[in-house]
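Q: My labmate handed me this sequence with no annotations at all. I'd like to see what the chain might look like in three dimensions before we decide whether it's worth expressing. Could you predict it?
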Amino acid sequence: MTRPSHLLAATVLGIAAFATTLPTAAQEAPNSIVSLYRVAPGKHLEFLKWMAARDAVDREIGVAATQWYAHLSGDSWDYIAIAPDLDEATSERSDAEAKKRGLTTGARASLEFRQVMAYHTDTLVSGPYTAEQLVEQAGK
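A: Here is what I predict for the chain of 140 residues:
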């Protein structure tokens, strides 16, 4: 295959993989939390290590991986994360595993987290959807 053929094949495979993750009109998409982070000056590496430790906990208990996006240009945020919205039982398992690893949890973890944060937001969302699926839902 020539290089353009490889690119085309990879693109088609990528689109097919993405399409299989989209809910059908009859399915309810799982909820996720979209978090936007503006890290305190000079605290970026500390923030990333803090989050990587929590991502490792999630992996250990079988939670889907958080998707991370790093800012390149434009607005003033540093990172965006899209993570599963955990139910209470999974959150408790996560806290238990974090404690086993010597990580903070609860209010203490919140205070620790805020030491590296300038600003952040968390938004509950459902998806991913195609625009067509959203049009279908709006018509219901």
